Amino acid sequence: WRFINCSRGALIVLEGVDRAGKTTQCQKLVQALQQSGQAAEMMRFPDRATKIGQLISSYLEKKSNLEDHTVHLLFSANRWEMVPLIRQKLEEGINLVVDRYAFSGVAFTSAKPGFTLEWCMNPDMGLPKPDLVMFLQLNPSMAENRGEYGIERYETSAFQRTVQQRFEELMQDSSVNWKVIDAARTIEEVHKDIKLLSEDIISLAQNQPVGELWR
Ligand code: ADP
Ligand code: 2DT
User: Is-contact 56 71, C-beta < 8 A?
Assistant: First the structure.
């Protein structure tokens, strides 16, 4: 007989304001994990490839308008539609490195007038809980130095500053395993921290069931 690899993969999320380096660091982490012989794949939210994702993408590109509550629920639905795949990959022992998750969902919608954190969190309650959420901390003026803001919805410095405040409120919640990463350093320096934290959580998560977010 032979050993069956029955340990699960870890669910690792990178969050932060626009330009903090999330996409760069997700890609580098997946590469580094693969090079060290661990199964790893990247995911991102919104996933613009699905039908729901196409509605979201058109909204972000300002090609369509959607009512604020409606688009919030679509972003959440776009995560829920991927849950079967997320669970399957984790069970197969694949570590998932995710570029944005429910935290972006709550931070962006609650930066709009008239939305409470609580209302925004509700639709995402019970999603697979990330084993680790790394928040790439970069002050908004440094983020602006990394290039002009694009033309998509939400890409203004005033809105990004409010988003940053909402993330800070979310980080008070100790039921989530938050780690704040200083993203103002070089790409390699930031990567080194992210890789170490990820390797630690991958060994810890192996022996634990996947949790439920905000529940
Ligand atoms: P995000 O996904 O958080 O919006 P990106 O990874 O797309 O951020 O990076 C935004 C821009 O900043 C890109 O041009 C990228 O090359 C650059 N960048 C990323 N990390 C750093 C860093 N540590 N120092 C300087 N520039 C960076
Ligand atoms: P990028 O594709 O460049 O990351 O931009 N957003 C994201 C929300 O408003 N709610 C969500 O649930 C998520 C995941 C953040 C996507 C934009 O969409 C915002 C920026």
Answer: yes
Nearest residue (by CA) to ligand 2, atom 8, is: 105
Q: What whole-number distance in Å separates Cα of residue 168 and Cα of residue 178?
A: 11
Digit-coded pLDDT (tens) for 94-140: 999 999 999 999 999 999 999 999 999 999 999 999 999 999 999 98
Instruction: Ligand 2: list residues with CB < 6 Å.
Output: 45-46, 60, 75, 100, 104-105, 108, 154
| Ligand minimally distant from the alpha carbon of residue 121 | 2
- Asked whether 11 and 90 are in contact (CB, 8 A), the reply is yes
Helix axes 22-35, 187-205, angle to 10 degrees: 60
Give the residue among 79, 198, 178, 102 at the shortest CA–CA distance from 136: 178
Q: How far is CA 64 from the centre of its chain?
A: 24
Q: Whose CA is nearest to atom 16 of ligand 1?
A: 24
Name the one residue in this structure whose structure tokens are 């989530």: 176
Ligand number nearest CA of 134 is 1
pLDDT digit string, tens, across residues 59-78: 999 999 999 999 999 999 99
CA distance 56 to 74: 7
Cα–ligand 2 centroid distance for 37 (angstroms) = 31
